[in-house]
């Protein structure tokens, strides 16, 4: 894709003082910076706590030692570089190692830290062969990086080939370009024609948007979303739960409602993964759950469809309730299909940022065998 409008030099950001640029130099040296002019135009530069600043601009706290590069152990589910098959019916294809902007909380920043590392797909034929030989896979996610930052011509080659595989019904494209650079959609009629030709009544293309804050939903974003919907795509939104961005119930509720107004159902709200550099964005799980539930109480049913979850190495784990003493988790989807639906009770830990921070399990209820319930010896 053309690089017009993209900035990779923090010194060219007009809203930052010389002192700020100097202070952020060590951060940029370790974690790359990239932004688009459209997104930068949405920032209120007079507000030191502007949430979009936190999303896109480096922060000194990113250098706090915490977490690891592959927080969800994606390498354990990689069939070969760029193809992940963690859940039975879903395959993830990393088709790009570039984004429209580098979110400071990115959980795959290893792709940008080490661009020479072979973690995205260069040769698609082995990928297509694998998919053809696994009929249990009925949906594929095209992501990276950003799934829409590859050229429309390349995207067409990928999607047309996937449509030849009969058992693949859903193609998802993960993108934050509707927030970062909606002109990717607005100025490319060939992309809309591609969606129109391959998002079919019996097997749709889903565009998985990534709006983190209602301020990101610009008039251009709304127009781009409308064009995609008219072309036949189904849109849904996912966001991490981010300290200083959307970690209060009013902001989160506003995001849910605004998305529902423009026809984008809230899909997932992810607990921020313990990736290197991400501590500045992380919120304790129990606080996140309370905030999430308060936000949902302010919304209509159409705006409250999101699930709060963690993309843990063992599966998508959903915190569902708190009691005075316990937190209750459920495997929304497990890497080991036998665990899917399993419910777990742990002693509460208000300082837990990730599932691994809980130690004392009270009991464990298996959905696959409802009469089987484990408690402490």
Structure description:
The chain has helices spanning 18-30, 37-41, 51-56, 110-113, 125-132, 152-162, 177-180, 183-186, 189-198, 219-231, 249-261, 285-297; strands at residues 6-7, 35-36, 78-80, 83-84, 90-94, 139-143, 170-174, 205-209, 234-241, 266-271, 307-312, 315-322, 326-334, 343-347, 361-365, 373-374. Strands 3-4-5-6-7-8-9-10-11-12-13-14-15-16 form a 14-stranded mixed sheet. The chain has a two-stranded antiparallel ribbon with strand order 1-2. It is built from twelve helices and 16 strands. Residues 369-377 have low confidence and may be disordered. The N and C termini lie far apart (59 Å). Helix 9 packs parallel to helix 10 and helix 11 packs across helix 12. Helix content is 28%, strand content 21%. It has a single domain, classed as TIM Barrel, CATH 3.20.20.70. It is of the alpha/beta class and 377 residues long.
The radius of gyration over CA amounts to 21 Å
Q: What is the CATH first-level class name? A: Alpha Beta
Within the CATH hierarchy, at the fold level, what is the topology?
Answer: TIM Barrel
Uncertain regions: pLDDT < 50 for 5+ in a row?
369-377
Give the number of domains.
1
What is the number of helices? 12
């Amino acid at each position: 894709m053309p690089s017009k409008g993209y900035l990779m030099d923090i010194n060219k950001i007009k809203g930052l003082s010389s002192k700020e640029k100097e202070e952020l130099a060590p951060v940029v040296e370790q974690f790359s910076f990239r932004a688009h002019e459209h997104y930068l135009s949405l920032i209120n530069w007079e507000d030191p706590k502007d949430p979009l600043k936190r999303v896109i601009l480096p922060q000194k706290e990113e250098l706090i030692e915490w977490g690891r590069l592959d927080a969800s152990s994606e390498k354990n589910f990689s069939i070969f570089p760029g193809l992940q098959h963690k859940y039975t019916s879903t395959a993830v294809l990393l088709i790009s190692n570039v984004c429209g902007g580098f979110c400071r909380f990115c959980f795959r920043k290893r792709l940008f830290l080490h661009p020479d590392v072979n973690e995205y797909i260069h040769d698609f034929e082995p990928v297509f062969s694998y998919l053809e030989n696994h009929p249990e896979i009925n949906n594929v996610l095209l992501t990276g990086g950003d799934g829409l930052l590859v050229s429309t011509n390349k995207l067409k080659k990928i999607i047309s080939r996937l449509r030849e595989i009969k058992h693949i019904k859903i193609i998802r494209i993960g993108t934050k370009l509707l927030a970062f650079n909606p002109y990717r959609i607005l100025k490319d009629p060939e992309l809309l024609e591609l969606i129109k030709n391959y998002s079919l009544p019996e097997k749709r293309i889903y565009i998985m948007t990534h709006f983190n804050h209602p301020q990101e939903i610009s008039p251009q974003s709304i127009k781009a979303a409308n064009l995609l919907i008219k072309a036949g795509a189904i849109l849904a939104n996912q966001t991490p739960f981010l300290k200083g961005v959307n970690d209060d119930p009013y902001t989160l509720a506003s995001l849910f409602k605004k998305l529902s107004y423009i026809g984008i159902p809230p899909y997932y709200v992810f607990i921020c993964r313990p990736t290197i550099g991400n501590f500045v964005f992380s919120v304790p799980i129990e606080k996140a759950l309370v905030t999430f539930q308060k936000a949902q109480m302010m919304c209509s049913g159409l705006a409250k469809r999101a699930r709060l979850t963690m993309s843990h190495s063992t599966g998508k784990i959903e915190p569902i309730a708190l009691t005075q003493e316990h937190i209750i988790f459920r495997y929304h989807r497990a890497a080991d299909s036998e665990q899917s639906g399993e419910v777990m009770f742990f002693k509460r830990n208000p300082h837990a940022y990730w599932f691994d921070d809980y130690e004392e399990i009270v009991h464990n209820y298996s959905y696959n065998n409802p009469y089987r319930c484990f408690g402490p010896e």
